[in-house]
Amino acid sequence: MMIYLELFLTFFKVGLFTFGGGYAMLPMIREEVISHGWLGQSELIDFIAVSESTPGPFAVNIATFIGTRTGGIFGSLCATLGVVLPSFIVIMIVARFYQKFKSSRLVIGAMTGLKPAVVGLIAVALLSLSQTVFFPTGLTTEVFTTAQFYVSLGIFAAAVVLAFKKLHPIFIILLSAVAGVISGYLLAA
Predict the structure, then answer these.
(1) 96 and 35: one domain?
(2) CB within 8 A of 45, min separation 6: which ones?
(3) What residue spans of the chain are helical by DSSP H?
(4) Could you tell me what percent of the chain has a pLDDT over 70?
(5) pLDDT value of position 25
(6) N or C: which end of the chain has fewer CB within 10 A?
């Protein structure tokens, strides 16, 4: 019974104290999930990939996946409710008072301060995840001799190019998954 409360409170905290959407939540999700021992770094990357490639908001998907893994169906409900509830409460309050305070210097100042912080949090998540994807055994010269490194780098580069060419993210995700499956079969052979 304690795990359900722990899932709810952990994801409530994640939902309450992160701004900027799912990617800005990654550093806090990573810290909480790993410190609780619910997932390892490699498993977390897999969950992030699945959460990103399934329909729905990233934060809801990852909370649901981790909740299911940790506490079954009821665990998924607790984690999902925990991550969604803070936003729901805040949006209800903001919607109620937005017209009155939208021109407030305090509100404008707070938003101006939050924007670069969100970009910084996303950058930290990107660097942390990149380290695990490209250098799973640490930054050694041996990494540069593995086919997995170059396949991952190629898929990453292709995804970046396709994103800048404004290809729809769904196609990028599908193409990346296909490339990963094909390379996995070729490397295993």
Answers:
(1) yes
(2) 129, 132, 133
(3) 2-17, 22-35, 41-53, 58-101, 105-134, 147-164, 169-188
(4) 97
(5) 81
(6) C
Going by the DSSP 8-state scheme, the letter that residue 11 receives in this structure is: H
- My answer on whether 86 and 163 are in the same domain is no
17 neighbors 28 (Cβ within 8 angstroms): yes
- Cα 138 to its chain centre, rounded Å, is 22
28, 43 in Cβ contact below 8 A? Answer: no
* Domain coverage including residue 24: 2-134
CA distance 122 to 145: 29
Give the amino acid at 59. A
Kindly calculate the radius of gyration of the chain based on its CA atoms and give it in whole angstroms: 19
The answer for residues whose C-beta is within 8 angstroms of residue 7's C-beta and 6 or more apart is 66, 67, 70, 71, 75, 78, 79, 82
pTM, rounded to two decimals: 0.60
pLDDT digit string (tens) for 108-130? 888 788 888 888 878 887 887 78
49 in helix, strand or coil? Answer: helix
Q: Per-residue b/e over 115-128, b at no fewer than 16 CB within 10 Å?
A: eeeeeebbeebeeb
pLDDT tens, residue by residue, 42-53: 888 888 888 877
Rounded CA-CA distance 51/46 in Å is 9
Please tell me whether residues 70 and 122 are part of one structural domain.
yes
